[in-house]
Amino acid sequence: MLSANSVSGNDKSTKKGPQILAALAACMGAFGLGTVLGYSSPAMSQLRDHPDFGAFYENGTLIGEGVSWQPASWIGSLVALGALISGPVIGFCVEAFGRKTTIMALALPFVIGWMLITYAWNLQMIYAGRFVTGFCGGAFSLAAPVYIGETAEDSIRGLLGAGFNLMIAIGILFTYIVGIIAPWDWLAVICACSPMALVSLMMFAPESPRWLISQGKHIEAIESLRWLRGASSSQVVEEEFLAIQRSVDDSKLNSASLKDFTHPSILKPTLICMALMLFQQLSGVNAVIFYTTDIFTDAGSSLAPSMCTVIIGTVQVLASLVSSLLMDKAGRKVLLLFSDLVMSLFLVGLGFFFYLKEFNPEFAAQIGWLPLASLIAFIIAMSVGFGPIPWLMMGELLPPHVKGQASAMATSFNWLLAFLVTFFFEDVKQTVGSYSCYWAFAGICALGTVFVYIFVPETKGKSLDEIQKSFEKGNAKSRVMDA
């Protein structure tokens, strides 16, 4: 795809406002995902103490206190399991029905999931609601980046793509704040409003022009491009339309089967996306976030747990905002390297504190600030790089004719790892010690830094076609060397 500047030159009739609006509409799905991820933190303690669900009750009768509440791990991890299932389903839907249609269709089941939680009279209904909202949230994490990547100009694609992660962070913070005053059922009702806001905004945005062209809807594709570029006439976007059409035609000629995934021009970007997802989840971000309250307590903080989560949520939002502003200036690769390196260093610090806490508690008490500082630095580094960029690069690196299948695989892989880390972290921590877990996460982040430096290409300012051609050129060079 050509950039808007190459298409229209100095034509001032093109604008960025409409494509920003389209990206904002798609990012309401990210806000919804944020509410799903953030819900368990304020709601969990209320559910644990509830006569119908809690650990201390049997048939509504108080039976004791200090009981371990086993449903907690399921309430937290079922979201990831639902998101895992969404990958192949939504990968098919975005290709068969379109990006916009798929995003809008998710709103109804999303509301149904929240209503299951709102009107739950047993744990099974809460489980079902968490699974359904997780499915929809995971679906947005696949469909929205693809839509944004295909509707944004090259010059602001990174900014708009990073907006997805920013909206997740805002959704999490929103849930933390509202959860301070709203009970668990009313919190679910409030969270159910975000899918309705998504539909209201998405109604005004057009379908992806690339998908429309792939369906032979050329007139609609030109109108979509004209709307997105704020162009005064279809002639302004004609050259870009022709470039997309050539790319789509090439994709159809090279329609992918399972065997085609072994071709280097497809295999390499797919493996890069999968590896970025692996390093994102095995950095331990979900484990660190899940035990935020424990870390604040160990730091000797006098703040209430609810305020602790709000502080972390605020830090995450501010860091995500900085990331969105830097994405098209510093570049993806630089931010990934910075992110993994800083996360590794501060995970070592976090592990060091817990090691001292076990073997030298007197000295650990003197550096109670260390876990708090490490956690804040970790969240900032994650939000600047490895939080948003793997999702953004999934929309940039994958070839158009396999984007649906490959995105589905990468998304499912990401959520599978999220489920495993969330569900088993506590058991592993009890077995080997929390310091060993954090040091293991630090080692994985260090490996991720090396991987990014060697294998991940810079995509800043490049069109989607230029990115694909770079993989093809690399393959051509290797064939020449082999010859």
UniProtKB/TrEMBL annotation:
Keyword Isomerase set for record: no
Keywords on record: Cell membrane, Glycoprotein, Membrane, Transmembrane, Transmembrane helix, Transport
GO CC terms, sorted: plasma membrane
UniProt-annotated location(s): Cell membrane
Keyword Transmembrane among record annotations: yes
Cited InterPro entries: MFS_dom, MFS_ERD6/Tret1-like, MFS_sugar_transport-like, MFS_Trehalose_Transporter, Sugar/inositol_transpt, Sugar_transporter_CS
Domain Major facilitator superfamily (MFS) profile: 18-460
Membrane topology designation: Multi-pass membrane protein
Membrane-spanning segments: 20-39, 74-94, 101-121, 127-147, 159-180, 186-205, 271-291, 303-322, 334-356, 368-394, 406-425, 437-456
Signal peptide: none
Gene Ontology MF term list: sugar transmembrane transporter activity
One Pfam family matching this protein: Sugar_tr
Domain of life: Eukaryota
Predominant location: membrane
Protein family (similarity comment): Belongs to the major facilitator superfamily. Sugar transporter (TC 2.A.1.1) family. Trehalose transporter subfamily.
PANTHER family: GH07001P-RELATED (PTHR48021:SF1), PTHR48021
Protein name (Swiss-Prot/TrEMBL): Major facilitator superfamily (MFS) profile domain-containing protein
Lineage summary: Eukaryota, Metazoa, Ecdysozoa, Arthropoda, Hexapoda
